[in-house]
Design brief:
alpha/beta; Rossmann fold; Helicase, Ruva Protein, domain 3; 4 domains; 5-stranded parallel beta sheet; 4-stranded mixed beta sheet; 16 strands; 12% strand; P-loop_NTPase; ATP binding
Length: 679
């Protein structure tokens, strides 16, 4: 490189860096809660963005996340910010039919516009392109074969069979018939029997008989026909006139032979070069986002966020193995970016971002400033957030609470004369009812309230969350308190929150708890089982055996599964082996009623001992159980700090210092080091 070229190239790269840095900054402003994902995407595209000429294969970036988390929209916005809007091609693989030519037709755009040049492809809803079904049987997906070629070598073939090819075949037959009937051609023009030509080739546009012999001659292949032919085989010529020049020196038979050769050439697949491309594979993998099927709006967004942060690339590849062949997964490479679920802070950030958009639009259109009280933000969160469903339900709730009231507000200003310069959205607690929240909108002029309207906002989730203070809530309060107390005393883990009323349609209440360590030792199996049986046992202790309800089926299923898993699979029974029979596809969630005196006996003994432990412990903590359950029979939740206070005041022979705070160093490492020191 000459010095001047080096300097030019340096400035070129500097400009690219500025573009990418600005794009990253704007993406982080426009998309809340995924800063780390945006940084990973920016780092992954850097080699392609700066040095596409060095590529001999596409750069493939895989994006996995829950629905509504910002996969598709982030990539679309990124392409706009780095100047690739016209060179971005998105394919929804969920909409691909079984017809091979459906996606081929879409790929023709790439061939015609970007062949061999840098561009971006988005393969959306990739999980729906599965080639293996739920029974691990292969599926013939002819419509997406080109995609696997694209992901492998960056090249694929496009067959250009369409209406024009059929038209060209018919044209050749007509021209050949015209020659057979006596039409003669010289240097591309008809020299004899022109009437026959028009009668056969184009009878509807036959011109009047020529009176002047010096009139313009008729082309054997018209200009309109030439345009269509060139469109089919333009890859063989630089310009259209090149094709005309060839035809203008031919007689009739030569023309027919040449058109046949062009027709055959158009049938050959055209290789599309995508080696300089950037490919985003985007999809949802419910197998790794195990929380994705939980639609409970009361589940902690922070807990889902924590779980999603623990998902690894190996888990992603294992999940893909349920949908694709191993060699297909290999084509996706190792660049897998995993979106975390939104935490509570992110959801509130998204709410504020959406309100800012409304605020700006109203200001730009009507010259009105808008203010939103934090209680309004909380209302939107409480009514709009389903932690596993991302932003879409939230956007709908923002629209319902704010946008739908703009018409009423503008009527007050322009028709009723309350000419305010700003609006303030607040919650009027006194005017709120049981099933509605009173949304108050103050009209301000020079910071003074000149008018207000109060509008009732029906509560959907809020209605479901209301304390019932009836027998059902009392039962749930006792049941969930049993789980929570045993978790604290036996597992040394205070739950994050206890619910005695929830908006979830599948449960009346629940305890959100998780031991801080990620393994299960033999000595804690019975403790864990006792926690699972704690709800049933608590009901029996406080209400009597005859008043125990049937709401423990899920707990019993989980407890039985853990017990059988421990002895059937994990060697925790009397005999150290893996057990099963020809009728088992997975670990049973039931005790088999047969003659087995080994694993069934072991599993039953674990459950019996766990129930006894639960009963002994809860009887000992009876005062704590009654106090907690009494509180939860009136209030719908008890948080971690509140429970800590209850334990401190009412627990028997239990010290809060026993609660596990450092789960990384409980026993094993320290014990190993001590053994090593003794050698």
């Amino acid at each position: 490189m000459e010095q001047i070229n080096k300097e030019q190239y340096k400035q070129h790269l500097k400009g690219k860096r500025e573009v990418l840095d600005k794009a990253v900054t704007l993406l982080k402003q426009e998309f809340i809660g995924i800063d780390s994902v945006i940084d990973q995407i920016a780092n992954a595209i850097t080699p392609w963005f700066f040095f596409p000429e060095m590529q001999d294969r596409p750069v493939i970036i895989n994006l996995w996340g829950l629905t509504g988390i910002g996969k598709t929209s982030v990539i679309k916005r990124l392409t706009e910010l780095i100047g690739y809007t016209e060179h971005y091609f998105r394919f929804d693989l969920g909409e691909c039919s079984s017809q091979y030519f459906d996606i081929q037709d879409s790929f023709k755009d790439i061939y015609e516009n970007c062949d061999g040049e840098p561009f971006i492809i988005g393969l959306d809803e990739f999980q729906l392109a599965r080639t293996i079904n739920e029974d691990q049987e292969e599926i013939d997906r002819a419509s997406i074969r080109a995609i696997w070629d694209l992901l492998d070598s960056g090249k694929f073939d496009v067959v250009n069979f369409d209406y024009n090819m059929s038209w060209l075949s018919k044209l050749i037959k007509k021209l050949d018939l015209a020659l057979f009937k006596g039409v003669e051609v010289e240097n591309g023009f008809i020299s004899q029997n022109e009437d026959i030509y028009w009668d056969i080739v184009n009878p509807n546009n036959k011109p009047e008989k020529k009176k002047n012999k010096n009139a313009e001659k008729t082309l054997f292949v018209s200009e309109g026909e030439l345009d269509s032919i060139f469109g089919m085989v333009d890859h063989l010529f630089l310009i259209k006139s090149e094709l005309r020049e060839k035809l203008d020196v031919m007689d009739g038979d030569q023309t027919i032979d040449y058109l046949i050769s062009l027709y055959k050439a158009s049938l050959k697949p055209k290789t599309v070069d995508c080696t300089k491309s950037l490919i985003f594979v985007m999809g949802n993998l419910d197998e790794v986002y195990t929380m994705s099927r939980n639609f409970n709006p009361d589940m902690s967004a922070n807990e889902f966020h924590r779980q999603s942060k623990e998902i690894t690339v190996t888990e992603v590849k294992q999940a893909l193995l349920n949908r694709f062949r191993s060699e297909q997964i290999a084509r996706l490479g190792n660049n897998h970016i995993i979106y975390p679920a939104f935490d509570e802070k992110s959801f509130f950030g998204i709410i504020r971002l959406e309100l800012d958009k409304i605020r700006k639009k109203v200001s730009d259109t009507y010259g009105l400033e808008m203010l939103f009280d934090t209680k309004v933000e909380r209302l939107i969160y409480d009514e709009g957030v389903f932690p596993t469903q991302g932003t879409r339900p939230l956007f709908t709730t923002v629209h319902q609470i704010v946008n739908t009231r703009l018409g009423k507000i503008l009527n007050e200003i322009y028709l009723n004369g309350f000419e305010a310069d700003s609006l303030r959205f607040t919650i009027n607690e006194e005017a709120s009812a049981k099933d509605n929240t009173a949304l108050q909108i103050d009209f301000l002029k020079n910071d003074a309230v000149i008018h207000h309207i109060t509008d009732q906002q029906p509560l959907v989730l809020g209605k479901l969350r209301q304390e019932k203070q009836n027998d059902e809530q009392a039962i749930v309060a006792v049941h969930e308190s049993g789980h929570a107390i045993l978790s604290s005393v036996l597992m040394k883990t205070i739950p994050d929150v206890v619910f005695s009323v929830t908006a979830d349609s599948n449960s009346s209440g629940f305890v959100l708890m998780r031991p801080e360590w990620n393994y299960i030792s033999k000595k804690e199996i019975i403790n864990r089982l006792a926690v699972l049986l704690g709800g049933l046992v608590a009901e029996r202790i406080l209400f009597g055996d005859e008043n125990v309800t049937i709401g423990s089926s899920s707990d019993l299923g989980k407890a039985t599964h853990l017990a059988t898993y421990a002895v059937y699979i994990c060697g925790m029974g009397e005999v150290k082996a893996t057990f099963g029979n020809e009728n088992m596809n997975s670990t049973p969630s039931v005790i088999f009623d047969n003659s087995s005196e080994t694993v069934n006996k072991d599993a039953k003994e674990l459950l019996i001992k766990a129930e006894q432990l639960a009963e002994t412990t809860l009887n000992k903590q009876r005062k704590l159980l009654i106090k907690m359950a009494d509180y939860l029979s009136d209030k719908r939740t008890l948080n971690k700090e509140q429970m800590r206070d209850y334990i401190k005041e009412y627990a028997t022979d239990f010290d809060l210092n026993e609660i596990v705070e450092d789960a990384e160093h409980l026993f094993y490492r320290k014990h190993l080091k001590e053994l090593a020191e003794k050698l």
